[in-house]
Queue: 2 jobs
Job 1
Amino acid sequence: MNLTIDKVTKTFGTKKALKEIKLEITTGVYGILGANGSGKTTLMRILASVMRPSSGHVYLNGKDIVKMDHRYRELIGYLPQHVGLYKSFSAEKFLAYIASLKGLSKAETKRKVAEVLELVGLAEHRKEKVGKFSGGMKRRVGIAQALLNDPKILIVDEPTAGLDPKERIRFRNLLSKISTNRIVLLSTHIVSDIEFIAKEVLILKDGQLIKKETPQELLAGIEDKVWEVTVAEKEVSHYQSMYKVSNITRNQDKFQLRILSDSKPHQYAKNEIPNLEDLYLYYFDEEDDQLCSY
């Protein structure tokens, strides 16, 4: 299976949310990494066929998804950032309702609802009202509804936002488990969500695709840009103003700074092994990470 994004641009008024995105995606998990406002959600909506690009095209195995219309949507499972749930419905009843909207027969609905509830770990809670579920359980209901039609392309937008660490681990393990023989696109600004499960990472910034590489390749690209420096307390603010400081650790009367810099920030600075947190900070300044719906 091959999903091709060909010079996709999306404009909202004078704002270009996406700028000629061009890439190819095949079977596996792809992490879309970017600060809020980078264009992640806009790209996901276009790939989910709920929004059309202002220009450019998306092709599935060489066929334009706009012309494919419902034949493409039948292959899609979509979990938006904010999924609407009927709070008075039980998990089982809600999923049965969504299954009917997707055109599943009664027999298919019964089988698939039981199957996806088991898959997301909610089988024993199937009779409970969704409104009483925790945030993590609601997100699992969301992924269950996206899987009802056994999609070949699964699109999930910020699936772990607001979840505690335990639920985040559970969720990304679930995505890894269900990624066999399908394309999974995971949009996030939480780097640990994709560190161990992504086949490749797409880095979006200001609506542009600036990197598409494996996590290992991305980290290799900044391996000489992560430094550790030990300084006195009075020097900390100076280094914070001059460099991107990802971590500060107190060691008796000194402070160890983890710094992102293209050049050696201090004569006694030593290189450190980079991680994806470093990668995120290297590409995105703190001021980039502002609330935005693009």
Note: The chain has two domains: 3-220, 226-282.
Job 2
Amino acid sequence: MTSDCVKHWFQGTRTYLIAELSANHGGSLDHAMESIRAMKDSGADAVKLQTYTADTLTIDCDRDDFKVGTGSLWEGRTLYDLYQEAHTPWEWHEPLFQLANDLGMDCFSTPFDKTSVDFLETLNPPAYKIASFELVDLPLIEYVASKGRPVIMSTGMGSLAEIHDAVEIVKKAGVPLALLKCTSAYPALPESMNLQTIPHLADAFGVPAGLSDHTLGIAVPVAAVALGACIIEKHFTLSREAPGPDSAFSLEPHEFKAMVDAVRVTEQALGTVNYELTEKEQASKVFRRSLYVVKDIAKGDMFTEKNVRSIRPGYGLPPKRLSEVVGRTARQDIAAGTALQLELLS
């Protein structure tokens, strides 16, 4: 089982741009559907959801182990409380999938346990996404891969060994795989991104690689595309002013559109290895330097570096031939401003 979205990963000619809804639904199905429409208008290729409940991710416990530590947007909250607010109700998935498909976008999700995989299978997703935090949940990855659908896997916090173990499971299942470089901080600082890892991931594991980005702004994903990223995943919100666990590090519609536009220009600019002149470059060749007579010369006078110079435009002999010219004599009278040609030399 394959998906059209896989063509983006392997052809390498067009970056696959994923808008992550995550918790930015505001607790409202109407808000979530409005977000998907805005994603389409902003140029997203795909919508990504997250499929879990608080009970499938953790337990309702307020011991310190279950509280978010310092230095986080969610500091002090219990995991259960956070996931209770952030989760996308499962009964919303079908209308959200349908809306995205009606708009011509892919829609898929990140499952967090076997029950969510089984549920998503009823919606026939084009792919599955494995979150960075689940990279080490090898039984879950094996179960996801067993469904025969393409897998996109984030690698935040993963060592090479941990990434290798997860990759081997997916490859054993024989399904298409792409890896995403990810820095699991919310928001992430540009200096923490180490985007050079993207081509290394592709080379080390022989799969397409991209970026799951939590930085603010659009510079980092555009830079990632320049380094070869074939997938960009970015959180999307209608407004960062709206309350929600993920709003602070998400792009608003006009920002996502600006990222899409910048990525598409970057793709055009990357092009191929090519030393042929463009049509406009060919026309510009006239403005190169060439050898010109810069002082009147009488027949039989010697060419010197005072009466011949390398100047613009480019109608004369190439500058590299100056040493061949100096010391020879003029075959005829030559006026200043004449492009020097071989037939003028004796």
Note: The chain has a mean pLDDT of 95.
